[in-house]
Write a structure and sequence with these properties.
Layout: H1 2-56, H2 58-66, E1 89-97, E2 100-107, H3 113-116, H4 121-127, E3 134-138, H5 148-159, E4 163-167, H6 181-199, E5 204-209, H7 211-225, E6 232-236, H8 261-264, H9 278-284, E7 289-294, H10 302-315, E8 321-326, H11 343-352
Parallel strand pairs: 3-4, 3-5, 5-6, 6-7, 7-8
Antiparallel strand pairs: 1-2, 2-4
Helix pairs in contact: 6-7, 7-9, 9-10
């Protein structure tokens, strides 16, 4: 009798254990089901909803291309360039058209450092005519003229005894308006003419970086059509809408590393007006051109620069177009070329050839 009772108790214990195990498994399964649902929803948003929105919402695309609302470094006063160790720099604002003004930093040659202390805007503008080379630096997307690599370029050029003017695009930093390709070109043309009107016989070189290379070639091509040849053009980290696939494009970061996305949505911004026809511009330009590119550039592959070099050489010749690659082992990526110790001599040699 005792044995039978033991068996019955064992059966009940086994049933209770099974029920508890089932409840635990159900509880453990629920979080997995929730994460599965969230994952499927995320895939739906990324693969279908986001590309759809990009074709329908130009304003969203504008922010994705320019990321001008990301005003790094944060909490800085752009009217005080001295805060960034630019002690021989003046801040000013220019009006390219009614209702639009944009900020500019003008850093004079380092040899004028002491003389520049306490000087007003008129003194800085008059200094442009001292026959020292003048550089207009058109920066890339995201951030402001206070970004460390942009300040680094200004310091390097000033140390070479060149003037450096860094305008802020409309919609960026403390400038008004919203960035649109045609308007950025309008502002750059206005600024170039403003500088030329005050620089006398000084050489004027336009240096574009990343997004700025598109604005630079747009500007230089427009000037060529007007019969004006820019003294020199430097293209750092140049991109090409024609050469780069949408999944690899530096302004399509949301498109990266999503397997198969290009099969369904090969060009989600094809209907929007973001052209930057760098190749076509290079075919028109007659200015001496220097291309600078890091072999480890993580946004724009070095092959793009090589292809743009070939286009420019075919339009002119190898004496007027140069490509200088920087070793990938240096770790400069897309923004770090200003740190290379060879760069000052490369720039100096280019200026001397103009």
């Amino acid at each position: 009798m005792m044995r039978k009772r033991d068996v019955k108790l064992d059966d009940k214990s086994s049933t209770a254990r099974d029920q508890r195990t089932a409840r635990v498994q159900m509880k453990e399964g629920k979080p997995f089901q929730r994460w599965l649902k969230r994952g499927l929803l995320s895939i739906f948003v990324i693969l279908i909803l986001m590309p759809f929105l990009l074709t329908k919402l130009p304003e969203l695309l504008q922010h994705l291309v320019y990321t001008h609302r990301i005003r790094v470094p944060f909490f800085v006063d752009l009217s005080q360039p001295a805060d960034f160790s630019l002690n021989h720099t003046v801040n000013m604002y220019l009006t390219s058209e009614e209702g639009i003004f944009f900020g500019v930093w003008h850093t004079v040659p380092e040899s004028l450092w002491k003389e520049a202390q306490g000087k007003d805007l008129a003194w800085y503008q008059n200094s442009l005519g001292d026959e020292s080379p003048v550089f207009i630096y058109l920066h890339g997307n995201t951030g402001t003229r206070a970004a460390p690599h942009r300040v680094g370029v200004a310091k390097m050029l000033s140390a070479l005894n060149y003037h450096v003017l860094v305008p802020e695009y409309r919609g960026f930093g403390d400038s008004t308006g919203e960035p649109v390709e045609a308007d950025l070109t309008t502002d750059a043309l206005y600024f170039y003419n403003w500088v030329k009107a005050r620089s006398g016989k000084s050489l004027v070189v336009i240096w574009g970086h990343s997004l700025g290379t598109g604005v630079t070639t747009n500007t230089a091509a427009k000037l060529t059509e007007q019969g004006v040849v820019v003294d020199g053009v430097i293209l750092e980290g140049a991109f090409s809408m024609a050469q780069q696939q949408i999944r690899d494009h530096p302004f399509a970061w949301y498109y990266w590393k999503i397997p198969g996305l290009g099969l369904f949505f090969p060009e989600p911004w094809a209907e929007n007006k973001y052209v930057f026809p760098t190749e076509e511009n290079l075919k028109k330009m007659r200015s001496p051109i220097l291309l600078l590119h890091a072999e480890d550039d993580h946004l724009v592959p070095i092959q793009v620069a090589q292809q743009l070099y070939e286009v420019a050489v075919n339009a002119q010749n190898s004496d007027r177009v140069k490509l200088v690659p920087f070793e990938g082992s240096k770790g400069y990526l897309h923004n770090g070329l200003y740190r290379d110790p060879r760069l000052p001599d490369i720039i100096k040699k280019f200026v001397q050839s103009l």
